[in-house]
């Protein structure tokens, strides 16, 4: 019995080490070539307004993203002219597994496995082959309350992103897509999960400006522009966000501190 447990523990350690090594290798090699991020729109509630929006949706709705990553990578001297290519993939008709309501680790792991399995079954074929798959759940503009929490999975290299099906929301929508995309490359959140306020210094676009507030831009992984103490606003588009130094380090754009 003890022997079996010892072997199991050893195997678990080995699997973790192997997984981590593979992941690190993938991350460090990612930026040797352009990473393809493919977007798959989904009509979340199946309503007519969202359907109409999705019928007209084209790549112009995401046009800010490629130049943004190009420009931000240049600030960190990444040495890769185009780090991310955005591809608008085919529509997905199936709905992804529901995200568990409780915040327990076990249900999060089970959901992540189910999500990866679902993605494997339902991703439409597209060219070029995606490095990262982002499933975009569109909701009608009349959706009441806050949208469900979006998720970017580092290990599965995929994301589930909740967006508004409205042209006026395309700026903020792209910020959410960019934020969740960087989670898939290992970036961490830089806001307080309870107050949603950016955490200084790493969650601020200009952490060393004086006076510190108001800020003009958001750090992408903090997601909001701090304006007054305990107050922040949603950025209107990519032009109002930057990738901060810690995020750049986490995604492998600079050497780890
Ligand atoms: Zn996040």
At CATH's second level, what is the architecture of the largest domain? 3-Layer(aba) Sandwich
Following the backbone from N to C, one meets helices and strands in this order, namely HEHHEHEEEHEEEEH
**What proportion of the residues is helical, as a percent range?**
25-40%
User: Which ranges are low-confidence, i.e. pLDDT below 50, for 5 or more consecutive residues?
Assistant: none
Radius of gyration: 19 Å
Distance between the termini: 43 Å
Topology, number of strands: 9
Alpha-beta content class: alpha/beta
CATH fold description of the largest domain: Collagenase (Catalytic Domain)
Q: What is the highest CATH level, the class of the largest domain? A: Alpha Beta
The strand line-up of the biggest sheet is: 2-1-3-5-4
Mean pLDDT equals 92
**Number of DSSP helical runs:** 6
Question: Beta-strand level of the residues, as a percent range?
Answer: 15-25%
Number of structural domains = 2
Ions, cofactors, ligands: which are bound? zinc ion
What is the molecular shape?
globular
Largest sheet: 5 strands, mixed
Structure overview:
With 257 residues, this protein is of the alpha/beta class. It has 6 helices and 9 strands. The protein has helices at 2-30, 48-56, 65-75, 105-122, 170-184, 245-250; strands at 35-43, 84-88, 132-139, 151-153, 158-164, 218-219, 225-228, 231-233, 241-242. The strands form 3 sheets. The chain has a 5-stranded mixed beta sheet with strand order 2-1-3-5-4, with helices on both faces. Strands 6-9 form a two-stranded parallel ribbon. Strands 7-8 form a two-stranded antiparallel ribbon. The N and C termini lie far apart (43 Å). The model has no long low-confidence stretch (mean pLDDT 92). Zinc ion (ZN) is lined by residues 179, 183, 189.
